[in-house]
Amino acid sequence: IAVRCPLTSIVPIKMAALKCSRALAKFSSIPASLNLLRAGFPRYCSVMPHTVHDRIEEKRQHALLGGGQRRIDAQHKKGKLTARERVDLLLDPGTFVEYDMFAEHRCSDFGMEKDENKFPGDGVVTGHGRIHGRPVYLFSQDFTVFGGSLSSAHARKICKVMDQAMLTGVPVIGLNDSGGARIQEGVESLAGYADIFQRNVESSGVVPQISLIMGPCAGGAVYSPALTDFTFMVKDTSYLFITGPDVVKSVTQEDVTQEQLGGAKTHTTLSGVAHRAFENDVDALLRLRDFYNFLPLSNRDPSPIRPTEDPASRLCPVLDHLVPLDSSKPYNMLDVVQAVVDEEDFFEIMPNYAKNIVVGFARMNGRTVGIVGNQPKVASGCLDINASVKAARFVRFCDAFNIPLITFVDVPGFLPGTSQEHNGIIRHGAKLLYAYSEATVPKITVITRKAYGGAYDVMASKHMKADINYAWPTAEVAVMGAKGAVSIIFRGEKDQTKKEAEYVETFANPFPAAIRGFVDDILEPQMTRRRICQDLDLLSTKKEARPWKKHDNLPL
């Protein structure tokens, strides 16, 4: 027999105790020892915490199970980890501190008020922890609870960790696995997305934001990853699209699969929405741990430095014979990068998109640097629309977070053609020029071979306020290549071959730029690493002021 006491009204405690005591007395079958209140109210209070403790543990266990064992098993059958398993794998053991484990939605429509439709945590795990000893805030959406759909409570949990990340100057990682807005909550769910978007924008350039897509991400949900600094995906199990295949079919009559529409291959090779794709959940989370170490915690921190056994004075003799003497023959710019950086460790960003330019993170004498380099193996290293946008966004990230930039130049110009012109190569190419020009971090440029035309200016030239500019002996700094230049200068004249040789002798070498001070030194390739490490130490105290402005007007 349960007897309820009016404990919610605390003021008349003695009166409440007396009423409860009288109520118990009416039941003659109850032993006197069970009449708790005859011994006084304090003894009754000592029993209550045990009951509350049981409820707390019950709720906690419920939260840890997410949507239940059956749904967890279904998640595993798809080759996916659960939200909590992902958090455990990403963070250092024992460092995770969870927020709002007991939060529940407050929707009462469509039967949502029933107990079976309430799950502690409401479909997202949030909190903070450490990766290699460095702090991080994160959220991990739980597909086993209503398909990871976003409710107002779900959104508030995410907003809380984003707010705290801003206050403390710590990066945010989002592990996305959600079917989209929770339809039962209507506009409240949409408002939740807008709250997250606003925080994405406010955090941009303040703390690094990383999105790892580990399942579906559809509708309005896609714009949060799009607003973050880096978006990674998992092959075969993650999808990003505004409208799914069924909607596309009904509107455009196109038959398309989820993978074709918004899979990892689509977004890492065609659209450029995602920066990299990984084989599975485990591979993605372990690679994300490695990637995190390249980043500073906030825009107030310098570029991270870690101990290295690779000496800064190391020579790179392999570079002396890497660039072919025939300027029409390609070579791999990645070979240059890996020879120069610490321990050949280079984390390439967007390796399968706009392959004619290489961008990514490395270390020089232990210090994180951003690498940008034209890739002669693809389209001769020409700059086109996609390459310009890819490099511009990377340069702006490095500048926002105090990461020095090293640029390797081998560019014959901007890619010609009606397709490029009609799609706005002028506007998009200006983005890269703008990004380099506004960057105030240390900028070091090495011209390995061709630096032709306007592309020479764009690729961190001395005129774009680069701090140190080097040229290898193989460098050619000119308006254009010899054949094109001779055909214009000596149009209609005979003996074009001889004229080409004269042009090469005059312009296709590093001396014209060196004489004018546009390069600081003509450098033997094997000395490149040593000199860059020395320059980075010198430039570590660089401070450059620019005129005040509310914000810039980048040619978007």
List keywords for this structure.
alpha/beta; disordered N terminus; 8-stranded mixed beta sheet; 556 residues; 38% helix
Write a structural description.
The protein is α/β, with parallel strands linked by helices and 556 residues long. Helix content is 38%, strand content 17%. The chain contains 20 helices and 16 strands. It has helices at residues 13-25, 41-65, 69-77, 83-90, 152-168, 187-203, 223-227, 245-252, 258-262, 264-269, 281-292, 333-340, 385-400, 418-422, 425-438, 453-458, 482-489, 496-507, 511-515, 528-539, and strands at 97-99, 124-131, 134-141, 172-178, 209-218, 230-234, 239-241, 276-278, 347-349, 357-364, 367-374, 405-411, 443-452, 468-471, 476-478, 521-522. Strands 1, 2, 3, 4, 5, 6, 7 and 8 form an 8-stranded mixed β-sheet that branches. Strands 9, 10, 11, 12, 13, 14, 15 and 16 form an 8-stranded mixed β-sheet that branches. The N and C termini lie far apart (72 Å).
Using only CA atoms, what is the Rg? 31 Å
Q: Can you tell me the residue ranges where pLDDT is under 50 for at least 5 consecutive residues?
A: 1-47
Bin the helical content. Answer: 25-40%
Number of helices in the DSSP assignment: 20
Q: In this structure, how is the largest beta sheet organized?
A: 8 strands, mixed
What class would the helix/strand composition place it in? alpha/beta
- Which strand-content bin applies to the residues? 15-25%
Average the pLDDT over all residues and give the rounded result.
Answer: 88
Termini distance?
72 Å
Secondary structure tally: strands: 16
Shape: elongated
Oligomer: single chain
